[in-house]
Amino acid sequence: MGSWRLRENFDWLTFLVMLLLAGWGVLTIYSATSGKPDGPLHQLYTKQLTWLAYGFVAFLVALLVDYHYVGKYAYVIYGIAVLSLLAVLTISPPVQGAQRWLGVGGVRVQPSEFAKIALILALAHYFAESQKLTPRGLLDLLKPALLTIVPFLLIVKQPDLGTALIILVIFVGLALCVGIQRRTFLLLCALVLAALPLLWLVMQDYQRSRVLTLLNPGSDPRGAGYHSMQSLIAIGSGGVWGKGMFQGTQSRLDFLPEKHTDFIFGVVSEELGFFGSTLLILLYLALIARGVTTALKARDRLGALLALGIVVLFSVTTAANIGMTIGVAPVVGIPLPFMSYGGSSLVSMMFAFGLLLNVRLRRYSF
User: Fold this and answer.
1) Backbone CA torsion sign across 53, 54, 55, 56
2) Fewer CB atoms inside 10 A, N or C side of the chain?
3) Contact (Cβ atoms closer than 8 angstroms) between residue 179 and residue 191
4) Rounded average pLDDT over 172-191
5) Is 155 helix (H, G, I), strand (E, B) or coil?
6) Looking at residues 125-129, what average pLDDT do you find?
7) In Å, what is the CA distance from 22 to each residue of 12, 13, 92, 141, 361?
8) What is the mean pLDDT of the chain?
9) Percentage of residues in the chain with pLDDT exceeding 90?
């Protein structure tokens, strides 16, 4: 395919919105952490800029290498991701009671973020290679279910229940996209409902507290409900137009916890109000819409499934983060894509969108 055709098919809108969100994220991180110039968080925005540069490299790699070639090595990539999750549990020291990070060349990375992309590649490759066109039964879903359950259990062990649930949603989303039998769907729903009591038993005490706090936010305002309460105060205090960029008091005076990571949406809402938070949500919806369009117009089954998997990942992550920020979902420690501080999240999501644009770029190739 000629270079002119590549330029013609490049999705500039998705690319520019992605960069806009990433840049907005750096500004918000600076605003949230600059209240104390000598504090430990003050330089995080410069680190985020560095991660953004790494993310751009990952984006270019995912964009320029034909996704069909990447798909050939989907199981190899998946295997590397599983090995990295095993390494986290065996050689990584606990940090605040959790084993989620792996030191690589003096830099800490979170393998679970990349495991989500690896699972999408593996499932998309499996479903694309399958020639079955009729809805799938329970036995047809056995292999992809096994591909899913391995990283799911390893991530639960860390413990990181929020990311583990996203792993399950990716599987369910792609399975529904390729089609499953009605009785199989009903059986899976029954199994999920039956597993809920078991899930409650294996949850950590703090995870149970977060679920209970969601049902009754005022039950523990200084304990498990503190994050949610402060987030709602920050969002409500922004009003329609907000207090102004760099003028948020809840974040700059350290009332809002995890202001530069999980609750960065609260910072945006306080500083830019309903207008700013609505604009942010519209940008996310624009990316989701473009992703769905890319899937519908993909050249082949592999491209369509890759695009759909990325859309599912991006949509669920965004909804879960904003949901916990506004108090309609439990606090599960999921970052807001492109906005929250965190190198692993940013680099993996930019790689994912490089794959998404790769699918759109090559939809007319021969």
Assistant:
1) positive
2) C
3) no
4) 88
5) helix
6) 92
7) 15, 14, 29, 37, 22
8) 87
9) 54
Rounded distance between C-alpha atoms, residue 103 and residue 109, angstroms:
6
| Vertex 76 angle, CA 336 and 104, to 5° | 55
Query: Position of tokens 């939809």?
Result: 363
Rounded distance, CA 118 to CA 133, Å?
24
CA dihedral 23, 18, 265, 292 (to 10 degrees): 180
- Compute the residue count for the chain: 366
Which helix (H) or strand (E) element contains residue 104?
A: strand 102-104
**For residue 355, what pLDDT is reported?**
97
Place of tokens 């519209």: 282
Instruction: Please say whether the beta carbons of 171 and 144 come within 8 A.
Output: yes
Helix-then-strand count for the chain, H and E: 15, 2
Q: Is the dihedral of CA 347, 83, 320, 145 positive or negative?
A: positive
Residue whose tokens read 């994050």: 227
Report whether 101 contacts 135 (CB < 8 A): no
3 state DSSP class of 354: helix
Alpha-carbon dihedral angle through residues 133, 136, 137, 139, given to the nearest 10 degrees:
90
Which DSSP helix (H) or strand (E) runs through 108?
Answer: strand 107-109
Residues 6+ apart with CB under 8 A from 61: 351, 354
Q: How far is CA 179 from CA 32, 173, 197, 330, 341, in A?
A: 44, 10, 28, 30, 37
By the 8 A CB rule, do 170 and 120 touch? yes
Using an 8 Å Cβ cutoff, are 56 and 49 in contact? Answer: no
350 Cβ neighbours under 8 A, 6+ residues apart: 18, 22, 55, 56, 58, 59, 62, 338
What does each C-alpha distance from 222 to 230, 254, 255, 321 come to in angstroms? Answer: 10, 14, 12, 21
Q: State yes or no: cis peptide before 135, omega within 30 of 0.
A: no
Pairing of strands 102-104, 107-109: antiparallel
Q: What angle do CA 114, 261, 250 make, to 5 degrees?
A: 170
